[in-house]
Target: DUF7322 domain-containing protein
Amino acid sequence: MPSEPPTETGSNGEPTDPAIGEPEEVADNAAESDGEDDRSYEQQVVDELVPDISIGDDATPDSHEIDAEPDNDTEADAEDGLSDALEEIDDDLLNAFIKIVVSIKAGILLISIGLLVIGFREMLALGGGLIAVGCLALARAAYRYWNHKQMRQQRDDE
Model:
């Protein structure tokens, strides 16, 4: 973005010479702008510190192709192992896990919102109610975990 330094008009309407009657810095800046560098100091620093990044379509395409299939067999085996492990999980365990995680997340969310309502809106009744419901959600998650663990132990003992 080349730009020429602004020219000031004298009292008679003609532009003044930057080398006459102005400080040396202005004269040096004018000499630089006539020479090789038209950029500001900030632009020069940014150009030195930030690498050139091309945006958009380039003439050279990427050297690698994006492929949905894994390149080697170990990645394919890991994906097959994960899908096999997910299929082997019994429905009771999966349902218990989902319910416990949702209860914990809901409890943390409700407690956080309750604290924010009390802190920023000074609504003690609403904030206290949200905190109480959040604590109940966390207690319910703990009970579900304990209950599921006890039922698994009873099944394993039999």
The radius of gyration is 35 Å. The longest helix spans residues 124-157. The CA atoms of residues 39 and 47 lie 10 Å apart.
